[in-house]
Amino acid sequence: MRRDIHNADVPTLCQACEARHRGICGALDPEQLVQLGRQAGRREVEPGAELIAAGMPADGYANILSGVVKLTSLLPDGRQQIVGLQFAPDFLGRPFAKSSEIGAEAASTVRLCTFPRSALEEMLRQSPGLEHRLYEQALRELDDARDWMMTLGQKTAAEKVASFLLLLGRHINPYANGFANSFDIPLRRADIADFLGLTVETVSRQLSHLRKAGIVTIEKNRCVTVSDLTALEIHAGVVPTDPQRTAARRNSGST
Amino acid sequence: MRRDIHNADVPTLCQACEARHRGICGALDPEQLVQLGRQAGRREVEPGAELIAAGMPADGYANILSGVVKLTSLLPDGRQQIVGLQFAPDFLGRPFAKSSEIGAEAASTVRLCTFPRSALEEMLRQSPGLEHRLYEQALRELDDARDWMMTLGQKTAAEKVASFLLLLGRHINPYANGFANSFDIPLRRADIADFLGLTVETVSRQLSHLRKAGIVTIEKNRCVTVSDLTALEIHAGVVPTDPQRTAARRNSGST
DNA sequence: CGAACCTTTGATGGCACTCAATACAGGTGG
DNA sequence: CCACCTGTATTGAGTGCCATCAAAGGTTCG
After folding, report:
1. Co-location of A62 and A88 in the same domain
2. Could B138 and A143 be called an inter-chain contact, meaning their C-beta atoms sit closer than 8 Å?
3. Out of A183, A213, B148, B244, which residue is the most buried by the measure of CB atoms under 10 Å away?
4. Which are the contacts of B123, defined by CB distance < 8 A and separation ≥ 6?
5. Residue B218's CATH number
6. For position B174, what pLDDT does the model report?
7. Burial of A226 by CB count in 10 Å (0-12 exposed, 13-18 middle, 19+ buried)?
8. Segments forming the whole domain that contains residue A201
9. The HTH crp-type domain covers which part of the protein (chains A, B) (predicted)?
10. pLDDT, tens digit, for every residue of A66-78?
11. Is A150 part of a structural domain of the chain?
12. In this complex, do A73 and B136 lie within 8 Å of one another by their Cβ atoms?
Protein backbone atom coordinates (compact mmCIF):
# COMPACT_ATOMS: atom_id res chain seq x y z
CA MET A 1 0.00 0.00 0.00
CA ARG A 2 1.40 3.35 -1.00
CA ARG A 3 1.68 6.03 1.57
CA ASP A 4 2.14 8.79 -0.95
CA ILE A 5 -1.53 9.60 -0.94
CA HIS A 6 -0.90 11.05 2.49
CA ASN A 7 2.01 13.12 1.30
CA ALA A 8 -0.14 16.20 1.41
CA ASP A 9 -0.15 15.81 5.17
CA VAL A 10 3.61 15.50 5.44
CA PRO A 11 5.39 18.72 6.38
CA THR A 12 6.96 20.36 3.34
CA LEU A 13 10.39 20.21 4.90
CA CYS A 14 10.12 16.46 5.37
CA GLN A 15 8.93 15.68 1.86
CA ALA A 16 12.37 15.44 0.31
CA CYS A 17 14.17 14.43 3.48
CA GLU A 18 16.10 11.21 3.34
CA ALA A 19 15.52 10.62 7.05
CA ARG A 20 11.95 9.78 6.20
CA HIS A 21 13.14 6.83 4.15
CA ARG A 22 16.38 5.46 5.51
CA GLY A 23 16.47 7.50 8.75
CA ILE A 24 14.50 7.32 11.94
CA CYS A 25 11.58 9.42 10.71
CA GLY A 26 10.45 6.48 8.62
CA ALA A 27 8.92 5.10 11.80
CA LEU A 28 6.59 8.09 12.11
CA ASP A 29 3.23 8.65 10.41
CA PRO A 30 2.35 11.99 8.81
CA GLU A 31 0.59 13.26 11.91
CA GLN A 32 3.61 12.55 14.07
CA LEU A 33 5.87 14.18 11.52
CA VAL A 34 3.79 17.32 11.79
CA GLN A 35 3.99 17.19 15.56
CA LEU A 36 7.75 16.69 15.54
CA GLY A 37 8.14 19.25 12.79
CA ARG A 38 6.58 21.91 14.97
CA GLN A 39 9.42 21.56 17.44
CA ALA A 40 12.14 20.93 14.90
CA GLY A 41 14.52 23.48 13.50
CA ARG A 42 16.95 23.60 10.63
CA ARG A 43 20.51 24.59 11.19
CA GLU A 44 23.54 24.88 8.97
CA VAL A 45 26.98 24.91 10.51
CA GLU A 46 30.50 25.43 9.23
CA PRO A 47 33.32 22.88 9.40
CA GLY A 48 34.79 22.72 12.87
CA ALA A 49 31.56 23.66 14.66
CA GLU A 50 31.08 21.71 17.86
CA LEU A 51 27.72 19.94 17.84
CA ILE A 52 28.02 17.91 21.03
CA ALA A 53 30.63 18.74 23.63
CA ALA A 54 32.23 15.76 25.36
CA GLY A 55 31.23 15.46 28.99
CA MET A 56 28.42 17.98 28.64
CA PRO A 57 24.76 17.11 29.06
CA ALA A 58 23.25 16.74 25.61
CA ASP A 59 20.48 19.25 25.18
CA GLY A 60 18.94 17.78 22.07
CA TYR A 61 19.11 15.56 19.06
CA ALA A 62 19.31 15.97 15.32
CA ASN A 63 19.13 14.27 11.98
CA ILE A 64 21.96 14.91 9.57
CA LEU A 65 20.52 16.26 6.32
CA SER A 66 23.82 16.66 4.53
CA GLY A 67 27.50 16.79 5.29
CA VAL A 68 29.72 14.72 7.52
CA VAL A 69 30.01 14.70 11.30
CA LYS A 70 33.03 13.35 13.14
CA LEU A 71 32.73 11.78 16.55
CA THR A 72 35.80 12.50 18.63
CA SER A 73 37.30 11.14 21.79
CA LEU A 74 39.98 12.99 23.70
CA LEU A 75 42.73 11.81 26.04
CA PRO A 76 43.68 14.04 29.00
CA ASP A 77 47.03 14.81 27.37
CA GLY A 78 45.42 16.06 24.19
CA ARG A 79 45.67 13.07 21.90
CA GLN A 80 42.56 12.73 19.80
CA GLN A 81 40.88 9.83 18.10
CA ILE A 82 38.00 10.12 15.69
CA VAL A 83 35.82 7.17 16.68
CA GLY A 84 33.26 7.45 13.94
CA LEU A 85 31.96 9.39 10.97
CA GLN A 86 28.28 10.03 10.47
CA PHE A 87 26.55 10.81 7.23
CA ALA A 88 23.06 11.80 6.13
CA PRO A 89 20.50 10.66 7.15
CA ASP A 90 22.01 9.44 10.43
CA PHE A 91 20.50 10.27 13.75
CA LEU A 92 22.83 12.28 15.95
CA GLY A 93 22.83 12.09 19.73
CA ARG A 94 22.97 9.65 22.58
CA PRO A 95 19.53 8.67 23.90
CA PHE A 96 19.11 7.86 27.60
CA ALA A 97 22.56 9.12 28.50
CA LYS A 98 23.24 11.76 31.07
CA SER A 99 26.22 12.85 29.08
CA SER A 100 28.59 11.22 26.70
CA GLU A 101 32.36 11.27 26.79
CA ILE A 102 32.29 11.54 23.06
CA GLY A 103 32.10 14.83 21.20
CA ALA A 104 30.58 15.56 17.81
CA GLU A 105 31.96 18.12 15.41
CA ALA A 106 31.09 19.16 11.88
CA ALA A 107 33.74 17.85 9.51
CA SER A 108 32.32 19.54 6.43
CA THR A 109 29.49 22.02 6.17
CA VAL A 110 26.60 20.26 7.84
CA ARG A 111 22.86 20.80 7.62
CA LEU A 112 20.86 19.51 10.55
CA CYS A 113 17.25 18.97 11.49
CA THR A 114 17.29 19.50 15.25
CA PHE A 115 14.70 18.76 17.89
CA PRO A 116 14.69 18.98 21.67
CA ARG A 117 15.21 16.03 23.95
CA SER A 118 11.61 16.12 25.13
CA ALA A 119 10.28 15.88 21.58
CA LEU A 120 12.16 12.66 20.94
CA GLU A 121 11.06 11.20 24.25
CA GLU A 122 7.46 12.03 23.44
CA MET A 123 7.78 10.35 20.06
CA LEU A 124 9.37 7.29 21.65
CA ARG A 125 6.36 6.95 23.92
CA GLN A 126 3.97 7.19 20.99
CA SER A 127 5.76 5.06 18.50
CA PRO A 128 7.54 1.83 19.44
CA GLY A 129 8.81 1.55 15.87
CA LEU A 130 10.95 4.60 16.49
CA GLU A 131 13.03 2.91 19.14
CA HIS A 132 13.42 -0.01 16.80
CA ARG A 133 14.88 2.30 14.17
CA LEU A 134 17.24 3.80 16.71
CA TYR A 135 18.26 0.33 17.81
CA GLU A 136 19.00 -0.67 14.26
CA GLN A 137 21.17 2.38 13.72
CA ALA A 138 23.03 1.59 16.94
CA LEU A 139 23.65 -1.96 15.71
CA ARG A 140 24.89 -0.63 12.40
CA GLU A 141 27.21 1.80 14.14
CA LEU A 142 28.45 -1.01 16.34
CA ASP A 143 29.31 -3.09 13.28
CA ASP A 144 31.07 -0.11 11.74
CA ALA A 145 32.98 0.59 14.94
CA ARG A 146 34.18 -3.00 15.15
CA ASP A 147 35.14 -3.02 11.50
CA TRP A 148 37.23 0.03 12.17
CA MET A 149 38.83 -1.56 15.22
CA MET A 150 40.19 -4.15 12.84
CA THR A 151 41.60 -1.36 10.70
CA LEU A 152 43.14 0.44 13.67
CA GLY A 153 44.59 -2.64 15.32
CA GLN A 154 45.86 -4.76 12.47
CA LYS A 155 46.32 -2.84 9.27
CA THR A 156 49.39 -1.05 7.98
CA ALA A 157 49.43 2.63 7.15
CA ALA A 158 48.90 1.93 3.46
CA GLU A 159 45.96 -0.35 4.19
CA LYS A 160 44.44 2.17 6.57
CA VAL A 161 44.42 4.96 4.01
CA ALA A 162 42.97 2.67 1.33
CA SER A 163 40.31 1.49 3.78
CA PHE A 164 39.45 5.09 4.53
CA LEU A 165 38.86 5.89 0.88
CA LEU A 166 36.68 2.80 0.53
CA LEU A 167 34.68 3.85 3.57
CA LEU A 168 34.13 7.31 2.15
CA GLY A 169 33.12 6.03 -1.25
CA ARG A 170 30.51 3.80 0.29
CA HIS A 171 28.98 6.38 2.59
CA ILE A 172 29.40 9.75 0.97
CA ASN A 173 26.25 9.59 -1.09
CA PRO A 174 23.10 9.30 1.03
CA TYR A 175 20.93 8.36 -1.94
CA ALA A 176 22.97 5.67 -3.61
CA ASN A 177 23.90 2.32 -2.13
CA GLY A 178 26.90 1.49 -4.26
CA PHE A 179 30.37 2.92 -4.38
CA ALA A 180 30.99 6.49 -5.49
CA ASN A 181 34.02 6.60 -7.78
CA SER A 182 34.49 10.30 -7.37
CA PHE A 183 33.96 12.46 -4.32
CA ASP A 184 35.36 15.21 -2.15
CA ILE A 185 37.14 14.15 1.02
CA PRO A 186 35.22 15.99 3.73
CA LEU A 187 38.16 15.93 6.14
CA ARG A 188 41.48 17.64 6.46
CA ARG A 189 44.62 15.53 6.58
CA ALA A 190 44.81 16.08 10.33
CA ASP A 191 41.34 14.62 10.74
CA ILE A 192 42.15 11.65 8.55
CA ALA A 193 45.23 11.06 10.66
CA ASP A 194 43.19 11.14 13.87
CA PHE A 195 40.69 8.74 12.32
CA LEU A 196 43.35 6.29 11.20
CA GLY A 197 45.65 6.51 14.16
CA LEU A 198 48.47 7.90 12.02
CA THR A 199 50.28 11.19 11.58
CA VAL A 200 49.49 13.80 8.95
CA GLU A 201 52.76 13.07 7.17
CA THR A 202 52.11 9.36 6.89
CA VAL A 203 48.62 9.96 5.51
CA SER A 204 50.02 12.34 2.92
CA ARG A 205 52.72 9.90 1.91
CA GLN A 206 50.29 7.02 1.50
CA LEU A 207 47.93 9.13 -0.58
CA SER A 208 50.86 10.04 -2.79
CA HIS A 209 51.70 6.36 -3.18
CA LEU A 210 48.15 5.58 -4.29
CA ARG A 211 48.30 8.49 -6.71
CA LYS A 212 51.67 7.47 -8.16
CA ALA A 213 50.45 3.89 -8.48
CA GLY A 214 47.62 5.14 -10.67
CA ILE A 215 44.93 3.85 -8.35
CA VAL A 216 43.44 7.26 -7.58
CA THR A 217 43.75 10.80 -8.81
CA ILE A 218 43.57 13.72 -6.41
CA GLU A 219 42.78 17.30 -7.36
CA LYS A 220 43.10 20.32 -5.16
CA ASN A 221 43.94 18.04 -2.23
CA ARG A 222 40.30 17.17 -1.75
CA CYS A 223 38.64 15.77 -4.83
CA VAL A 224 39.37 12.08 -5.25
CA THR A 225 38.63 9.87 -8.21
CA VAL A 226 39.08 6.15 -7.81
CA SER A 227 40.27 4.79 -11.12
CA ASP A 228 40.99 1.25 -10.00
CA LEU A 229 38.58 0.05 -7.35
CA THR A 230 39.89 -3.52 -7.30
CA ALA A 231 43.43 -2.34 -6.70
CA LEU A 232 42.19 -0.10 -3.92
CA GLU A 233 40.46 -3.04 -2.26
CA ILE A 234 43.60 -5.12 -2.53
CA HIS A 235 45.60 -2.32 -0.96
CA ALA A 236 43.02 -2.13 1.83
CA GLY A 237 43.59 -5.79 2.66
CA VAL A 238 39.91 -6.63 2.41
CA VAL A 239 40.23 -8.99 -0.49
CA PRO A 240 42.26 -12.20 -0.72
CA THR A 241 45.36 -11.93 -2.89
CA ASP A 242 47.15 -15.25 -2.54
CA PRO A 243 45.18 -17.81 -4.58
CA GLN A 244 46.46 -20.70 -2.49
CA ARG A 245 45.34 -19.15 0.76
CA THR A 246 42.08 -18.09 -0.82
CA ALA A 247 41.34 -21.67 -1.82
CA ALA A 248 42.14 -22.86 1.67
CA ARG A 249 39.78 -20.33 3.23
CA ARG A 250 37.04 -21.22 0.82
CA ASN A 251 37.23 -24.90 1.63
CA SER A 252 37.35 -24.49 5.37
CA GLY A 253 34.57 -21.95 5.24
CA SER A 254 32.14 -24.07 3.26
CA THR A 255 32.13 -26.99 5.69
CA MET B 1 7.28 -2.21 45.12
CA ARG B 2 9.05 -5.51 45.57
CA ARG B 3 8.65 -8.16 42.98
CA ASP B 4 10.05 -10.90 45.16
CA ILE B 5 6.60 -11.98 46.22
CA HIS B 6 6.31 -13.43 42.76
CA ASN B 7 9.56 -15.30 43.04
CA ALA B 8 7.72 -18.54 43.52
CA ASP B 9 6.59 -18.20 39.92
CA VAL B 10 10.09 -17.55 38.60
CA PRO B 11 11.82 -20.60 37.12
CA THR B 12 14.34 -22.07 39.54
CA LEU B 13 17.14 -21.62 37.07
CA CYS B 14 16.40 -17.91 36.78
CA GLN B 15 16.21 -17.20 40.50
CA ALA B 16 19.91 -16.61 41.01
CA CYS B 17 20.63 -15.47 37.46
CA GLU B 18 22.21 -12.09 37.09
CA ALA B 19 20.53 -11.62 33.70
CA ARG B 20 17.29 -11.09 35.56
CA HIS B 21 18.74 -8.01 37.21
CA ARG B 22 21.31 -6.38 35.01
CA GLY B 23 20.66 -8.44 31.87
CA ILE B 24 17.85 -8.46 29.38
CA CYS B 25 15.60 -10.82 31.36
CA GLY B 26 14.85 -7.98 33.73
CA ALA B 27 12.36 -6.79 31.14
CA LEU B 28 10.30 -9.98 31.46
CA ASP B 29 7.65 -10.84 34.03
CA PRO B 30 7.58 -14.24 35.77
CA GLU B 31 5.14 -15.69 33.29
CA GLN B 32 7.33 -14.73 30.37
CA LEU B 33 10.38 -16.11 32.14
CA VAL B 34 8.61 -19.43 32.44
CA GLN B 35 7.70 -19.33 28.78
CA LEU B 36 11.24 -18.48 27.72
CA GLY B 37 12.65 -20.96 30.23
CA ARG B 38 10.75 -23.78 28.54
CA GLN B 39 12.73 -23.20 25.36
CA ALA B 40 16.00 -22.30 27.04
CA GLY B 41 18.90 -24.60 27.65
CA ARG B 42 22.07 -24.42 29.69
CA ARG B 43 25.39 -25.08 28.13
CA GLU B 44 28.94 -25.06 29.36
CA VAL B 45 31.77 -24.79 26.88
CA GLU B 46 35.54 -24.95 27.09
CA PRO B 47 37.95 -22.17 26.14
CA GLY B 48 38.31 -21.91 22.39
CA ALA B 49 34.82 -23.18 21.60
CA GLU B 50 33.24 -21.33 18.71
CA LEU B 51 29.89 -19.87 19.73
CA ILE B 52 29.06 -17.88 16.61
CA ALA B 53 30.87 -18.49 13.36
CA ALA B 54 31.60 -15.41 11.28
CA GLY B 55 29.58 -15.27 8.10
CA MET B 56 27.24 -18.03 9.21
CA PRO B 57 23.57 -17.53 9.89
CA ALA B 58 23.09 -17.24 13.61
CA ASP B 59 20.83 -20.01 14.81
CA GLY B 60 20.11 -18.63 18.23
CA TYR B 61 20.93 -16.33 21.11
CA ALA B 62 22.24 -16.69 24.62
CA ASN B 63 22.90 -14.95 27.90
CA ILE B 64 26.34 -15.30 29.38
CA LEU B 65 26.03 -16.73 32.89
CA SER B 66 29.72 -16.80 33.63
CA GLY B 67 33.03 -16.61 31.84
CA VAL B 68 34.31 -14.35 29.10
CA VAL B 69 33.48 -14.36 25.39
CA LYS B 70 35.71 -12.76 22.77
CA LEU B 71 34.27 -11.26 19.62
CA THR B 72 36.65 -11.72 16.74
CA SER B 73 37.05 -10.26 13.29
CA LEU B 74 39.20 -11.88 10.66
CA LEU B 75 41.02 -10.50 7.63
CA PRO B 76 41.26 -12.66 4.50
CA ASP B 77 45.01 -13.10 5.06
CA GLY B 78 44.52 -14.47 8.56
CA ARG B 79 45.16 -11.42 10.72
CA GLN B 80 42.78 -11.35 13.64
CA GLN B 81 41.40 -8.58 15.80
CA ILE B 82 39.38 -9.12 18.94
CA VAL B 83 36.76 -6.39 18.67
CA GLY B 84 35.14 -6.87 22.03
CA LEU B 85 34.94 -8.88 25.21
CA GLN B 86 31.64 -9.86 26.75
CA PHE B 87 31.01 -10.76 30.37
CA ALA B 88 28.10 -12.05 32.39
CA PRO B 89 25.25 -11.17 32.18
CA ASP B 90 25.63 -9.86 28.63
CA PHE B 91 23.32 -10.87 25.86
CA LEU B 92 25.06 -12.69 23.05
CA GLY B 93 23.94 -12.56 19.44
CA ARG B 94 23.03 -10.17 16.70
CA PRO B 95 19.29 -9.52 16.44
CA PHE B 96 17.73 -8.80 13.04
CA ALA B 97 20.88 -9.74 11.14
CA LYS B 98 21.02 -12.35 8.45
CA SER B 99 24.54 -13.12 9.50
CA SER B 100 27.33 -11.25 11.10
CA GLU B 101 30.91 -10.91 9.93
CA ILE B 102 31.95 -11.16 13.54
CA GLY B 103 32.60 -14.43 15.29
CA ALA B 104 32.23 -15.24 18.98
CA GLU B 105 34.47 -17.63 20.84
CA ALA B 106 34.75 -18.70 24.47
CA ALA B 107 37.85 -17.12 25.98
CA SER B 108 37.55 -18.90 29.32
CA THR B 109 35.16 -21.64 30.35
CA VAL B 110 31.75 -20.15 29.61
CA ARG B 111 28.31 -21.05 30.90
CA LEU B 112 25.44 -19.99 28.69
CA CYS B 113 21.68 -19.83 28.84
CA THR B 114 20.67 -20.38 25.23
CA PHE B 115 17.36 -19.93 23.46
CA PRO B 116 16.29 -20.21 19.84
CA ARG B 117 15.85 -17.25 17.55
CA SER B 118 12.10 -17.69 17.46
CA ALA B 119 11.83 -17.53 21.25
CA LEU B 120 13.49 -14.13 21.36
CA GLU B 121 11.36 -12.83 18.54
CA GLU B 122 8.24 -14.00 20.33
CA MET B 123 9.36 -12.23 23.49
CA LEU B 124 10.13 -9.06 21.55
CA ARG B 125 6.57 -9.04 20.27
CA GLN B 126 5.16 -9.47 23.74
CA SER B 127 7.38 -7.12 25.64
CA PRO B 128 8.52 -3.75 24.27
CA GLY B 129 10.71 -3.33 27.33
CA LEU B 130 12.89 -6.15 26.08
CA GLU B 131 13.93 -4.32 22.96
CA HIS B 132 14.71 -1.33 25.13
CA ARG B 133 17.09 -3.46 27.20
CA LEU B 134 18.73 -4.77 24.06
CA TYR B 135 19.06 -1.23 22.76
CA GLU B 136 20.71 -0.12 25.97
CA GLN B 137 23.22 -2.95 25.80
CA ALA B 138 23.99 -2.03 22.21
CA LEU B 139 24.60 1.57 23.24
CA ARG B 140 26.87 0.41 26.04
CA GLU B 141 28.80 -1.81 23.67
CA LEU B 142 29.08 1.07 21.25
CA ASP B 143 30.60 3.28 23.94
CA ASP B 144 32.99 0.49 24.87
CA ALA B 145 33.96 -0.08 21.26
CA ARG B 146 34.70 3.61 20.76
CA ASP B 147 36.68 3.77 23.95
CA TRP B 148 38.75 0.92 22.68
CA MET B 149 39.24 2.61 19.31
CA MET B 150 41.00 5.35 21.23
CA THR B 151 43.22 2.73 22.83
CA LEU B 152 43.98 1.04 19.51
CA GLY B 153 44.58 4.21 17.55
CA GLN B 154 46.45 6.47 19.93
CA LYS B 155 48.00 4.63 22.82
CA THR B 156 51.46 3.14 23.12
CA ALA B 157 52.08 -0.52 23.87
CA ALA B 158 52.59 0.21 27.56
CA GLU B 159 49.37 2.20 27.75
CA LYS B 160 47.46 -0.47 25.88
CA VAL B 161 48.44 -3.20 28.31
CA ALA B 162 47.63 -1.03 31.32
CA SER B 163 44.28 -0.13 29.77
CA PHE B 164 43.57 -3.80 29.27
CA LEU B 165 44.13 -4.60 32.92
CA LEU B 166 41.88 -1.72 33.92
CA LEU B 167 39.17 -2.98 31.58
CA LEU B 168 39.38 -6.47 33.05
CA GLY B 169 39.30 -5.25 36.63
CA ARG B 170 36.15 -3.28 35.95
CA HIS B 171 34.25 -6.02 34.14
CA ILE B 172 35.46 -9.33 35.52
CA ASN B 173 33.04 -9.44 38.40
CA PRO B 174 29.39 -9.47 37.27
CA TYR B 175 28.09 -8.70 40.77
CA ALA B 176 30.28 -5.80 41.82
CA ASN B 177 30.43 -2.40 40.18
CA GLY B 178 33.83 -1.27 41.38
CA PHE B 179 37.32 -2.37 40.46
CA ALA B 180 38.55 -5.84 41.31
CA ASN B 181 42.11 -5.62 42.60
CA SER B 182 42.78 -9.27 42.01
CA PHE B 183 41.57 -11.51 39.23
CA ASP B 184 42.52 -14.15 36.73
CA ILE B 185 43.20 -12.97 33.19
CA PRO B 186 40.75 -15.02 31.12
CA LEU B 187 42.83 -14.74 27.96
CA ARG B 188 46.05 -16.16 26.69
CA ARG B 189 48.81 -13.78 25.68
CA ALA B 190 47.97 -14.36 22.04
CA ASP B 191 44.40 -13.21 22.66
CA ILE B 192 45.55 -10.16 24.56
CA ALA B 193 47.82 -9.33 21.65
CA ASP B 194 44.94 -9.63 19.16
CA PHE B 195 42.79 -7.45 21.39
CA LEU B 196 45.43 -4.75 21.73
CA GLY B 197 46.80 -4.79 18.20
CA LEU B 198 50.22 -5.90 19.43
CA THR B 199 52.35 -9.02 19.30
CA VAL B 200 52.59 -11.64 22.02
CA GLU B 201 56.15 -10.64 22.75
CA THR B 202 55.31 -6.99 23.26
CA VAL B 203 52.44 -7.85 25.58
CA SER B 204 54.72 -10.06 27.63
CA ARG B 205 57.38 -7.38 27.83
CA GLN B 206 54.95 -4.72 28.97
CA LEU B 207 53.47 -6.99 31.61
CA SER B 208 56.99 -7.61 32.86
CA HIS B 209 57.60 -3.88 33.03
CA LEU B 210 54.47 -3.38 35.14
CA ARG B 211 55.56 -6.23 37.38
CA LYS B 212 59.10 -4.91 37.80
CA ALA B 213 57.71 -1.44 38.50
CA GLY B 214 55.78 -2.92 41.41
CA ILE B 215 52.41 -1.90 39.99
CA VAL B 216 51.07 -5.43 39.63
CA THR B 217 52.05 -8.93 40.68
CA ILE B 218 51.43 -11.89 38.41
CA GLU B 219 51.30 -15.50 39.50
CA LYS B 220 51.23 -18.53 37.27
CA ASN B 221 50.96 -16.21 34.24
CA ARG B 222 47.28 -15.67 34.87
CA CYS B 223 46.47 -14.37 38.31
CA VAL B 224 46.96 -10.62 38.54
CA THR B 225 46.90 -8.46 41.63
CA VAL B 226 46.90 -4.71 41.15
CA SER B 227 48.88 -3.22 44.00
CA ASP B 228 48.92 0.38 42.75
CA LEU B 229 45.75 1.32 40.93
CA THR B 230 46.64 4.99 40.55
CA ALA B 231 49.96 4.12 38.93
CA LEU B 232 48.17 1.73 36.60
CA GLU B 233 45.76 4.48 35.57
CA ILE B 234 48.64 6.84 34.93
CA HIS B 235 50.35 4.21 32.80
CA ALA B 236 47.10 3.75 30.89
CA GLY B 237 47.06 7.44 29.98
CA VAL B 238 43.56 7.94 31.30
CA VAL B 239 44.48 10.39 34.04
CA PRO B 240 46.20 13.77 33.69
CA THR B 241 49.81 13.81 34.83
CA ASP B 242 51.05 17.29 34.01
CA PRO B 243 49.46 19.76 36.48
CA GLN B 244 49.91 22.67 34.09
CA ARG B 245 48.12 20.98 31.27
CA THR B 246 45.44 19.71 33.63
CA ALA B 247 44.70 23.26 34.75
CA ALA B 248 44.52 24.41 31.16
CA ARG B 249 42.03 21.72 30.26
CA ARG B 250 39.92 22.50 33.27
CA ASN B 251 39.69 26.16 32.36
CA SER B 252 38.89 25.67 28.72
CA GLY B 253 36.34 23.03 29.59
CA SER B 254 34.41 25.14 32.08
CA THR B 255 33.68 28.01 29.71
C1' DC C 1 58.60 -37.93 33.73
C1' DG C 2 57.89 -36.27 29.22
C1' DA C 3 55.42 -33.88 25.67
C1' DA C 4 52.76 -30.08 24.06
C1' DC C 5 51.75 -25.63 24.69
C1' DC C 6 52.38 -21.20 26.43
C1' DT C 7 55.28 -17.48 28.06
C1' DT C 8 59.39 -14.90 28.65
C1' DT C 9 63.65 -12.83 27.21
C1' DG C 10 67.17 -11.32 23.84
C1' DA C 11 69.01 -9.52 19.27
C1' DT C 12 67.92 -7.27 15.07
C1' DG C 13 65.41 -4.73 11.57
C1' DG C 14 61.60 -2.05 9.42
C1' DC C 15 57.68 0.92 9.53
C1' DA C 16 55.81 4.86 11.05
C1' DC C 17 56.88 9.03 14.02
C1' DT C 18 59.47 13.29 14.67
C1' DC C 19 61.65 17.28 13.12
C1' DA C 20 62.40 20.47 9.43
C1' DA C 21 61.80 22.74 5.14
C1' DT C 22 59.25 23.61 1.01
C1' DA C 23 55.00 23.92 -1.81
C1' DC C 24 50.23 24.86 -2.34
C1' DA C 25 45.31 26.76 -1.72
C1' DG C 26 42.08 30.13 -0.39
C1' DG C 27 41.06 34.54 1.23
C1' DT C 28 42.01 39.58 1.87
C1' DG C 29 43.42 44.07 0.69
C1' DG C 30 45.96 46.97 -2.22
C1' DC D 1 44.58 41.30 -11.13
C1' DC D 2 48.33 40.50 -8.32
C1' DA D 3 50.89 40.51 -3.77
C1' DC D 4 50.50 38.92 0.48
C1' DC D 5 49.36 35.95 4.25
C1' DT D 6 47.55 32.10 6.86
C1' DG D 7 46.38 27.63 7.19
C1' DT D 8 47.11 23.27 4.96
C1' DA D 9 49.64 19.76 2.46
C1' DT D 10 53.78 17.56 0.66
C1' DT D 11 58.41 15.87 0.76
C1' DG D 12 62.87 14.60 2.88
C1' DA D 13 66.24 12.97 6.58
C1' DG D 14 66.91 10.70 10.85
C1' DT D 15 65.24 8.24 15.00
C1' DG D 16 62.63 5.14 17.98
C1' DC D 17 59.08 1.91 18.99
C1' DC D 18 57.33 -2.24 18.11
C1' DA D 19 57.48 -6.42 14.97
C1' DT D 20 60.18 -10.22 13.65
C1' DC D 21 63.17 -13.99 14.33
C1' DA D 22 65.27 -17.14 17.55
C1' DA D 23 65.87 -19.64 21.78
C1' DA D 24 65.24 -20.75 26.51
C1' DG D 25 62.17 -21.14 30.57
C1' DG D 26 57.39 -22.42 32.71
C1' DT D 27 53.11 -24.63 33.12
C1' DT D 28 49.82 -28.27 32.57
C1' DC D 29 48.50 -32.15 31.01
C1' DG D 30 48.82 -37.29 30.11
Report:
1. yes
2. no
3. B148
4. B28, B32, B35, B36, B130
5. 1.10.10.10
6. 82
7. buried
8. 155-253
9. 155-230
10. 999 999 999 999 9
11. no
12. no
